[in-house]
Amino acid sequence: MLTTEKQKKICEKYSARDSNWKVHCNECPLRLPQVWSLGACRATYHYDRHRKEWVLDEDQ
Fold it and tell me: Which residues face 47 on adjacent strands?
């Protein structure tokens, strides 16, 4: 879940398609390496302090 304008701008930059129509999410600083195999980033996951893990946002 993106909570700040800075995070939203970063997401816009890396998710925009380049001249070859590719996105660069794998280079984005908002991606979550611990669950990246699921394609996880802070735009679609949030950290649950009680469970101590990254959880997929339910409103997706």
Answer: 54
Tell the burial category of 35 from Cβ atoms under 10 Å away from its Cβ (0-12, 13-18, 19+).
middle
The pTM assigned to this predicted structure is 0.77
Q: What's the N-to-C CA distance of the chain in angstroms?
A: 10
| Residue 19: both structure tokens together | 């001249």
Tally of residues, the chain: 60
Element containing residue 47 per DSSP (H, E): strand 45-48
Express each pLDDT in 6-55 by its tens digit. Answer: 999 999 999 999 999 999 988 999 998 777 666 788 998 988 999 998 88
